[in-house]
Amino acid sequence: MSRYVFKLPDLGEGAVEAEIVAWRVAAGEEVQEDQPLVEMLTQKATVEVPAPVTGRVLSTTGTPGERVAVGAELAVFETRGGAAAANAAPPEKPVVAAAPPASPASSAAHSDGRRVATSPAIRRRAREAGVDLTTIAGSGPHGRVVLQDLEARLRAPTGPARDLADSGPEIQEIPVIGLRRLIAEQVLASARNIPHFAYVEEVDVTALESLREQLNATAGNGPNLTYLPFIVRALIRALARHPQCNARYDAARQVLLQHRAVHVGIAVQTPQGLKVPVIRDAQQLALRELDAEIRRLSTAARDGRARPQELTGSTITVTSLGKLGGIASTPIINQPELAIIGINRAVERPVVHAGAIAIRRMMNLSSSFDHRFIDGFDAARLIQTLREGLEQPALLFM
Fold first, then answer.
1. pTM over 0.85
2. Residue 332 in contact with residue 274, Cβ under 8 Å?
């Protein structure tokens, strides 16, 4: 027998430390080499670190929510044979899931020792929901549990409704760790470091709605277009005229990085929290291609399959609450960007149009800008150009 000390490896992306999300093993367990050991959260992704050796876990260092420096002791193993030693080298490469962390309060992953065949993303969602995967009959190949199996279990009734007074403790303590802590830190840093300038404008999207319906009627079996690809296309057109808004601020160097390419971040609400997948080189994509990429990235973000490079590098962000969009909002800038565009709900209401009262479909755009680098005049010009493209959608195809 020999003792193998495993230290946190370099997880890439310049990370010098990572936060423990959830241990996949416990002291005393027998593990196989490459078996998932622990999930770690960096600033850009969730990384599934595998066991470096086959053996028994003697000890683990740290609990969910704690941060561990690269190179610090993470776990100690007892192995058979003399090949392993203290301060051993890390495994070749951790598995990068680029997904939100699982809830540390859940322990459904190892309920009876049997490892269920499924994806890391589904395993995380099951832990968060408190679902024991061993109780689900998988419909995938060789009994693999697929997303539809888990969703069916989550939709299934769990028994008669209980009275509110009997539904649990009066006060529940919820640790702010993992992705939620990361979101909190980023939002606080953005609000504290960036003087936000808000600008709200209403847009008549009646013509856009008519065009959208016509395109959807001729789409065949393809998915219906939402407003989002039109808005992204109109934003690309507007940024071509006002490129100072398509930029990032490097605070360490005190340099503005104005981009020629438009990398649009799309804020996506997931079961674990807000993520912002990025449409790279959006200016090169046609309308249907934009729609397909938005759908692909949004689904990947929700399922935990988005890669780290798909979650970073945006030059401007679009955020929408869909049908919950309200009348107006004050979105927080996704630093180090300089601007964010918020989409509010589109509704039909009476307005003055062509000198008469008419029912038109109206939508508000709520935007925020970094007032250090974008003056109110330039912010207004960007939104007015965006409005022009949405109210005259033929311009989007010229």
1. no
2. no
